[in-house]
Design a protein that fits this description.
elongated; Serine Threonine Protein Phosphatase 5, Tetratricopeptide repeat; alpha+beta; single chain
Amino acid sequence: MKKLSLVAMTMCVALALSGCFASDIGDFYQSAQLYLGRGEYAAAADLFAQLGEYRDSAEYALYCRALAAMQAEEYAVARANLAAVEPFKSSARYLEYLDALEAEKAGDLEAALALYEKLGTFANSHLEAERLRKDIPEAAMKEGRALMARGDYEAARELFRSLQDYGNSQSLADNCTAALNRAARDAAESLAEAGDKLGALAAYRAMGDTLDALKRAEEIRGDILAELEKQYAAVTLATAPALIDAYAALGEDEAALSRIAALNERFGRNLRLLTMKAPLVQLGVYPYAESGEEHPVRWLVIKVEGSLLTLLSEQVLDASAEASAVPVDFDEKEKPAAGEVMLPSMTELAAVPDLICEATPYAMAQGAQNPAAYWLRDSLENGVHPIIGAAGTMALPQEDEVIGVRPMVVIDLEKINFTQGDGSAEAPFRVE
């Protein structure tokens, strides 16, 4: 019967528009409004479409088709029609409602809830919001359990904590914490079993007092100190730097700090010399002034190997037409530690960042230039010794050229005790 009345109404509208019932067109407009008001959107859309350009019938036709599409869950059609008539009537709010539906379908329940709450009671959005407020924590609980099943206890715990005691969320969060603590203990013990005592110590300390972690940490600390005490009993200058580093790795540990202080006091400047970057050492004498007056020789430390230091003179000390070293004079305290004075090789100079070198006044008086070229110990197949040129790169000497001499020596710190200086240019390490 309703379909028949709608057909009759449509025919009447058609006749009215043709002029037969022109005086009644307003009644048909009102009838379309009635269909809209009753929620019969498809019928209303057909009537408004028949009314053509009468008043706002064209907009109403699209508007009603959009609402009919929403009833049929044809949301793409609904959105297209609403977008075509916006801001007609409630089209903008219906578009927001569609945004909420799409957010919910995509799984973004929080965004959907915010949109429903913004719409208030429009299109029963408040009921949808109420439904989501119940669904969201349940969805979160389900997700949290899935995370636990995958072993992602950290993420699961954060999710359960965010639910603020909803259901048994706090109990589940506690279960996650327990699982994380067990995993942390197992990981710490694996480090200990693998020999990484320091890593195990740090891991147990990070656990606080959970699962007796502090007790286990103290046991491991005792093991580490016992091993270090064996090394301390047999320590030499050569092994002291590594032992100090091992004690320092224990952090603000009173026993470790005490041993570090004892090692520094025992080995003094020799130990600081070993651990400093690019210190200067004063050792032996050689003519310095143009007149031949002798001065102490200053050396750069270019290599450290155990207690052995390779020293290279800071300046070119002499000059010679042949590749030969110079006889640096060491005193009685220095001689036991000093090896043979020789020319440096290119390999040994690889650790020196800048090979450009100044000559002493004495070396210049013997024919050296400034900056000075100086001999290398290396020898070519033809017997020629290469040089480091004035520009700091390897070169070949010119015939009859007088080349500088920049000596090198290896000293053993176990056989000498430096008592003065701090290794700087102003106060090189020295024996007095």
